[in-house]
Amino acid sequence: MKVLVYGSGQLAQMMYLAAAPLGVIVSAVDVFTETVVDPVSKKPTGVSLSQAIYDASAITIEFEHVPEHLLLEADKSGKLYPNVASILAGADRVREKVLLSKNKIPNCDYLIINHVDQLDGVVAALGEKVIFKASRDGYDGYGQWRISTAAELLALRHEFSLLDLKKVPLIAEKMMQFEREISLLGARSKDGRVVCFSLAENLHHEGQLHVSVAPITKLSDTLQQKANDIFATLATSMEYVGVLAVELFQCGEELYVNEIAPRVHNSGHWTQQGCSTSQFEQHIRAVLGLPLGSTEVIGVSAMVNIIGCTTFNRDLIGIPNVHLHWYGKEVRVKRKMGHINVIADSHANLGLKLKQLIEFLPLEHFPKLEGEATRLQ
Ligand code: ATP
Ligand code: MG
Ligand code: MG
To answer: Which residues form the ATP-grasp domain (predicted)?
Structure first.
C-alpha cells in the first residue's frame, strides 16, 4: 500500500519511518515545486504527481498551508484524509473560530479585523493586552503582534494599514492568563472511532515549542476527560479522519482551545518512544482504514526540540532511554533540526534524566530545559 503526503519536511519523513514496518510506502510532495520526492533524501522520485495520486491508497498532509488548488486536485481522487474542510479550518483562523463557536468549544475572546477602522474597538472589547494573528500562513509565532497598551496599538496601525485585510483578515485575541499550555492529540478512524493520546504539557520560547512532557504533571481524570470530550466533539463534527492536534490553555480546571492542527504535531513526538502506538503510525493506520492502535503510555516522556543548533554531543544516545531523531536539514536560526525523546518511570526520574542530558547540550539553545528538569525533580 502507498500513502502520498503533501509536504516534505520532517513530519512526512517520520510518517515514512513509522509506515515501513506495516509494509506501507510513503512518498512526499514538495508543495512548492509540485514534485513527488523521497521523504528522507528529498530527491525527486521521477513519478509524476498525477501518477502518484493514482497509485496511492490514501493521500494526506503534513502541513496545513498546502496551496488550495493542490488540495482540490488531491480531493478529486476521493482518497484525501482528513477532508479539505478540516484542513482549511486548521489553515485559516477565521474558519477555525467559526468551527469552535459552532461547537460551543471555549476559546479566547476575539474580533475579526478586516478593516483598520475596526482597530478602534479592540481595546474596549478585549482589554489592552491583545495578540494579533494573521489569519493565514502563521506558524511558530510568525505572523503575530502583541500589545499591552492602547498606545502600542496606535503604533501598529500604520503597519496593519499596509496589509490586505480584506483578503487575509487579522484575528485580535485577548491575551489569556493561563496556568500552562497543554495539547491533546487523538485520531478518528473512517468508521468514526475516536482514540486520544495522553495530554502533553508544552513549554514555548518566543512563540516556538521547546519542550513537551507527557503525561502532564498533576493530571486529573476530569481534565483528561474534558480534553477528550473537546477532541471528540471537534473530530466528529468535522468528520475528521487521521491524527488531529488540539492546543489548549489551562486555567484552573477550565480548558480553552488556542488552535488546532489537522495533522501530526510536534507536541506528539513523544509518542514515538513513550506510547504503544506513535502518532505517525496512528495517522497512517487511520487514513488507510486500518484498526487504530493502543495509546497506552510507556512511562513518562519528555520531548526536547533541537532548534537552530548542530553543536551538541551525540553521545547523549548513550543515556538509557534517550533517543535522538535527526531530520537532516541545513541549520538556520529558529529552525527545528531534530528532537530528543527521553523516557523515565516517573516525573521525578524524568527530571533527573533531563539533568543528565543537559551535560551533552549547549544550553543557550535549550533555554527551557534546566528549569523544566528542576521542576520535574
Ligand atoms: P504553531 O507553531 O503552534 O502553529 P502559531 O504561530 O500558529 O504556532 P499560536 O499557537 O496561535 O501560533 O501562538 C503561539 C504561542 O503564543 C502560543 O503557544 C502561546 O504561547 C502564545 N499565545 C497565542 N495566543 C495567545 C493568547 N490568546 N493568550 C496568551 N498567549 C497566547
Ligand atoms: Mg499554528
Ligand atoms: Mg500553536
So the answer is: 97-288
- Cα within 13 Å of Cα(176), Cβ side: 20
Average pLDDT over residues 173-180: 96
**pLDDT tens-place string over residues 279-294:** 999 999 999 999 999 9
- State the Cα torsion 101-263-291-70 to the nearest 10°: 100
Is any atom of ligand 1 closer than 6 Å to the C-beta of 134?
no
- Atom 15 of ligand 1, nearest CA residue: 207
Q: What is the DSSP string of 241-308?
A: -EEEEEEEEEETTEEEEEEEESS--GGGTTHHHHBSS-HHHHHHHHHHTPPPPP--B-SEEEEEEEES
Per-residue pLDDT of 253-285, as tens digits, reads: 999 999 999 999 999 999 999 999 999 999 999
User: Does 142 appear as a known binding residue?
Assistant: yes
Return the DSSP state at 92. B
CB-CB contact of 106 with 257 (8 Å): yes
Per-residue pLDDT tens digits for 48-68: 999 999 999 999 999 999 999
Would you state the cell numbers that stand for residue 12, as one nine-digit string? 512526512
What pLDDT, on a 0 to 100 scale, did the predictor assign at position 305? Answer: 98
Mean pLDDT of 120-137: 96
Q: Is the CB of 54 under 6 A from ligand 1?
A: no
What span, in angstroms and rounded, lies between the C-alpha atoms of 32 and 55? 21
Report which ligand 1 atom has the smallest distance to the Cα of 208. 2
My answer on whether omega of the bond before 215 falls inside 30° of 0, hence cis, is yes
- CA 119 to CA 157: how far, in whole Å? 8
The answer, yes or no, to whether any atom of ligand 1 lies below 6 A from the CB of 334, is no
CATH T-level fold of 180-372: D-amino Acid Aminotransferase; Chain A, domain 1 (3.30.470)
* pLDDT average, residue stretch 313-320: 98
Smallest CA separation from ligand 1 atom 31, residue: 175
- Decide: 259 in ligand 1 pocket, CB within 6 A: yes
The CATH-assigned architecture of domain 109-174 is: 2-Layer Sandwich (3.30)
Q: Quick check: 139 pLDDT over 90? A: no
pLDDT of amino acid 165: 96
Domain 2-80 is found in CATH 3.90.800.10 = no
